[in-house]
Amino acid sequence: MLELFQIIWFWLIALLIAGYFVLDGFDLGVGALYNFIAKDEKEKAILRRSIGPVWDGNEVWLITAGGALFAAFPFAYATSFSGFYLAIMLVLFSLIVRATALEFRSHKAAGSGKLWDILFFLGSGLPALLFGVAAGNVLQGVPLAANGDVIVTIPVIDLLTPFPLVCGILGLVLFLALGATWIAVKAPQGSDLQARAKKLQAPFQITALVVFVLATAAMILLVLGGLPDFSNPMMLIATVFALLFVVCMIVSLVLKKNDILAFLAQAAAVLFLPFLWAASQFPNLINATTGNPVTIFNGSSNEVALLWMTGITCIGVPLVLFYHFIIYRSFRGRIKDEDLTY
């Protein structure tokens, strides 16, 4: 029974991360595009309004994923947070700066509009890059002691090796593509802002597909050191997720004239990528270049804790989903002039 709970929680955490990548992904994409796609104050207000009612609720998925990792796999939580301490703090400070900039800019802080615009861009673009870098480093592996402890706290510069950097660029471009499709959904129909967003979709999507191919090649050459072992069922599952990712990207390109369907296809592609990442390293939680990796079997809580967590999740997740349904339904549709108060 313990092994079943360990497997369940591995995939549940992957689901939480995937949910965060989709929901906060378009927020981060909008923020990273903010200073480049909006040409005047009204267009900037439209972009802020497009994510204003939902961005803080979207971040719940990141908090929940961190809490689930702490409760279900505390050893992996301790190892990752100690090893990636500086990088994690950089991400957290970026998210804090983004939230602060969005709120102050929306309330027209006197004489500081350009400053908050820059901080909003930096607080959105940097996490979009670093999340992919973090995923690449976990796949590539970090130096661990025999007991699974990180040998040293890893400096940020040491995390920026070729494979993680390619993963970071892939994450950034995907979030930009997702942000562009979201802007096309929310901007006034026929507006210049919507036209610019739609024009950006294809370049970002094609770039993401190219970078995905490069990331796959880097994974084979630099991490695996050869072709994947397809006798391993997880490799077959990872291949399925990779194909689904590519199909959804192509579908989003084909359906670019239908804003909502293009966004949904792009969101599905982003959703499948964390599952590809999870399947590629199952059952490892943190791969090791030295020492022993942290796995779901040597890094989990006991059976009672996982049982209680499962029960709480069965109650909590439907409530969160219902909250999202209410919020997105309440603020559905394109933004009108009378909405520009956020």
Walk me through this protein's architecture.
This protein has helices at residues 2-37, 41-51, 55-58, 60-72, 74-83, 85-106, 113-140, 156-159, 162-186, 192-224, 233-254, 259-281, 303-330, and strands at residues 142-143, 284-286, 288-290, 294-295. It is mainly alpha-helical and 342 residues long. The chain has one domain. The strands form 2 sheets. The chain has a two-stranded parallel sheet. Strands 2-4 form a two-stranded antiparallel sheet. Helix 7 packs across helix 9. It is globular. It starts with a helix and ends in a 12-residue tail after the last helix.
In short:
The chain is mainly alpha-helical and 342 residues long.
Features:
4 strands; mainly alpha; two-stranded parallel ribbon; two-stranded antiparallel sheet; about 350 residues
Order of adjacent strands in the largest pleated sheet: 1-3
Structural class by SSE content: mainly alpha
Question: How much of the sequence is in beta strands?
Answer: under 5%
Apparent shape: globular
Please tell me how large the radius of gyration is: 20 Å
Largest beta sheet, briefly? Answer: 2 strands, parallel
Topology:
Layout: H1 2-37, H2 41-51, H3 55-58, H4 60-72, H5 74-83, H6 85-106, H7 113-140, E1 142-143, H8 156-159, H9 162-186, H10 192-224, H11 233-254, H12 259-281, E2 284-286, E3 288-290, E4 294-295, H13 303-330
Parallel strand pairs: 1-3
Antiparallel strand pairs: 2-4
Helix pairs in contact: 1-2, 1-4, 1-7, 1-9, 1-12, 1-13, 4-5, 6-7, 7-9, 9-10, 9-12, 10-11, 11-12
